Amino acid sequence: MYRFRLAEPGLFLDKYARFTEQAENTGMKIDLNANFRSRHEVLDGTNYIFKQIMSEEVGEIDYDDAAALKPQAPYAELDMPITLAVLHTPDLEEEAETPELQAEEEMKKSQLEARYIIGQIKQLIDTGAQVYDAYEKDAAGNPMKRDMEYRDIVILMRSMTWSNDFVEEFKLAGIPLYAELSAGYFEELEVMIMMNTLRIIDNPYQDIPLASVLRAPFVGMTENELAAIRLAEPKASFYDALKSFVLKERSGLHAGTAEKLQRFLLQFDDWRDLARRGSLAELIWQVYMDTNYYEMAGAMSNGKQRQANLRALYDRAIAYEKTAFRGLFRFLRFVDRIRLRGEDLGTAKAISQSENVVRLMTIHGSKGLEFPYVFVAGMGRPFNKMDFNLPYLFDQNFGLAVKMIDPEKRLQYTSLPFLAVKEKKLLEMKAEEMRVLYVAMTRAKEKLFLVGTVKNWENTAITWHEMQQLSLDEPLPPYIRRTASNYFDWVGPAIARHADYQQTLDMVLSARPDEPSRFDVQIVDATTFQAATVEDEVVEVADTPVDKALLARIEQRFDTPYPHKNRLHKRSKASVSELKRLQTLEQQELPEIFATTKPSAQRVATRPRFMQEKKMTAAEAGTAMHTVMQHAPQQGFATIPQVAAFVEQLVENELLTEAEAKTIYYKNILAFFDSSIGTRFKEAKAIHRELPFTYRRVDADGDEQIVQGIIDCLLEMPTGEWILLDYKTDRLKNHANPEQALRERYEIQLALYTEAIECILGIKIAEKVIYAFDSSETVVL
What we know:
- By secondary structure, the protein is an alpha/beta fold.
- 45% of the residues lie in helices and 16% in strands.
């Protein structure tokens, strides 16, 4: 690799064009072999390996002295040999009688290599490894150096099929790793739960997704509770069984079960309604907000990544609805088709490659890049030969070659043309793999690690050592290079002829003494990654004395119940009307979701607005009556025309609309002023109307809650007594006992009003009075 500094680019390009034209005419070959990137240890080791494995016969290029890399970077002299790490595990079949191996679960090769690399990275960081800049000098003229960071490390693989295992191992080790993953998204737990939630919102008659959501942490049903639901209707769908369970067992449900079902069923109906009228992204975000699952995922292990996956689902829903397709059903079909084809989406990125992270990428993706420390993983993985399993092969020069098929016997044979083309394509594939290995080894600037796993080290070592008997001046035999099934089949026999390898294994030296390359060969028993950790933990626990005082404090903290547990089920701020409704339900001993005798009646869709009659609701009519009483003169009215004139004046002053004025029954207002409480209203010394308040209430358990409300009327009588007056517009004429109905409905509400007023104003309420305009009833509580 040459560096050019172009003062006149145009002039250089003209001269370069004439030079290359002369070279082509004369058959000259130009070797760009000067390397300004890497240390000489990296380049010497690369030259040593490729001189033995690459030739015109196998590799399509003769790797001679002219093609060998020449180090040109002015690095300081340090001992930085290439590390060759051969990981191996004992043969479990031969050692089956060993109890430790029977109990120990065999780890994946990807996990073994990931843990080895993690150990090497931690060692480099802990020992203060340095990174040098060959082209920046300090005041003394030495290359600039700094402490190594995670960003200086890259892990290269032939493909990313091991990426998920590497990501998980690095998460457990606490080392940030950035990987461009193209799969695994829909297999993440938090994504699976949210997809199942969307599936039952679209169609609740799906048993497995419904059971998954009920078991999810934001619902929290137990196995016994799910079993009880199933037994409610053994032959029906799980959704029908759930509804049957609610209807049959509502009066005898455990409080915890009732609360879970109450919260979930209310939210579920709202989600289904939003799915019909809102956007998909809005629905997903509403589920996050209602269930707090986004926060739950953040509190779990690897929470940052889980939250990134949930955000990605929301973002992908937005992107999907920007296309011509809409709706939850089509989105779920889209996802199902992706998975049916065996495809997936990459997991979301919780970190960016610009941060201080170790990078994991393919060797192809690293072309043109350079890194101070490079780990080439998967050296023992077999080459991808899937294309050769097809019944046909195609070659650019020889055309199509197919296998022979016997249609009667239904057998398939390898034909001679197919075999010939296969051998040719295999050689081309091996040449491409050699070039890929060359790219991987030359990405390193300072330190190169070659890491791989072998199944049986003893047999592998015998194969490698056979090459020591051959002449050191010749490359490896062609049959060795042709039959290679992985990178170790090339690199291993080549390095086995090196002095550093033979010294590591205490062998008789047969290598060339003047070889400039340096290798650090490590033969690692991979089972030590697990065994050492477990053994250390056991010894540490056994040797550590128990601090009884500390243990007692821990037990006390875990066993002591939270003193304000009831506050978890109460809102920090509530209105008096809401508290009245909740306390009424508690008195009836029914969960809120089951209080309605006809739950389906509330779910009937209303008419569209343009088809609805423009009619005032009962609540709006009640508000209008309260407005009249808020502004009515203290002495009241003598005749109906006086009431009518007053109401018209309110309309003119825009305190009432004309529609609201039509709901006022004038005779009911006259009846109030003719009643006993109306007489006391006229005799009052002072009247406080529509009196708002905010009150900090402490209940019997010591729990605090902010209560707010508006008192209709507070009368101060000449005798000094205080009367609390509350107006009601309930329809009670057809009720058997209107007075009893008013007491049952509003006794709790007026008790809360009384408690708040007495605390805030420091007065004593002498009477609590309800006046019902519809029945002209006066009820003293």
